[in-house]
């Protein structure tokens, strides 16, 4: 299966591409910067150069040939609220619309822990959570075969593939390795029980693949 990774230039996106390379699937890396595209092409990775602020038609062209989509893009912490709106929300929705147009059903969304809980949103990050929340809601109404993954704070620790599920009462000091988020996104593609489901998770004691199979 050819899997388009939207946001392949990001920290999680890079791990998703690596996880796909280590699997029977084939990654297609979608990035927005020429340098990122050149790096992937040097690795012989099929690469699509397109910005999520581009018209829907351009995003659909970049998606051609894919069998599934993993969305892991974000505007980043150094940009303003305008870019959060344009990338994390509108860019995500345009990606879903492109998948609909092309008949690509499988769509895995890497969202954020707490995006579905307005009462938990901090004032400082409220625009980010608003964008993630409504992107997730749009996906749930899209008719696509979706899985929404909501990891908590991200770390560069080694993968353990062991998680805790749900929104914890206390998040202080808790995180999840980016590598585990990548493994979950790739694994979900082939776990039918995860279709139409949402998973909030951090590092813990439960086997991640078994959790995905039990959703």
Question: Beta fraction of the residues?
Answer: 15-25%
Distance from first to last alpha carbon: 23 Å
Total strand count, please?
A: 11
* Integer average pLDDT: 95
Tally of helical segments: 7
Shape: globular
Helix percent reads 25-40%
The assigned structural class equals alpha/beta
| H-E string | EHEHEHEHEHEEEEHEEH
Question: What's the main sheet like?
Answer: 9 strands, mixed
Strand order of the largest sheet: 3-2-1-4-5-6-10-8-11
What Rg do the Cα atoms give?
16 Å
Give a concise summary:
The chain has 215 residues and is α/β, with parallel strands linked by helices. It has helices at 11-21, 34-42, 56-63, 81-102, 126-140, 178-188, 208-213; strands at residues 2-6, 26-31, 46-49, 68-71, 106-110, 145-151, 154-155, 162-165, 176-177, 197-203, 206-207.
């Amino acid at each position: 299966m050819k899997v388009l990774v939207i946001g392949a230039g990001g920290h999680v996106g890079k791990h998703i591409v690596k996880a796909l390379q280590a699997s029977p699937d084939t990654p297609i890396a979608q990035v927005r910067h020429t340098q990122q595209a050149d790096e992937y092409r040097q690795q012989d990775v099929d690469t699509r150069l397109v910005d999520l602020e581009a018209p829907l038609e351009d995003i659909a062209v970049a998606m051609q040939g894919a069998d599934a989509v993993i969305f892991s893009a974000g505007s980043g912490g150094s940009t303003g609220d305008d870019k959060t709106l344009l990338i994390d929300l509108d860019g995500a929705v345009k990606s879903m619309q492109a998948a609909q147009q092309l008949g690509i059903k499988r769509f895995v969304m890497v969202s954020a822990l707490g995006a579905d809980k307005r009462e938990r949103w901090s004032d400082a990050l409220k625009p980010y959570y608003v964008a993630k929340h409504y992107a997730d809601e749009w996906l749930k109404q899209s008719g696509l075969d979706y899985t929404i993954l909501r990891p908590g704070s991200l770390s560069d620790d080694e993968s353990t593939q062991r998680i805790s599920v749900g929104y914890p009462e206390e998040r202080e000091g808790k995180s999840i390795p980016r590598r585990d988020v990548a493994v979950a996104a790739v694994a979900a593609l082939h776990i039918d029980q995860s279709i139409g489901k949402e998973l909030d998770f951090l590092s813990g004691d439960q086997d991640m693949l078994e959790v995905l199979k039990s959703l």
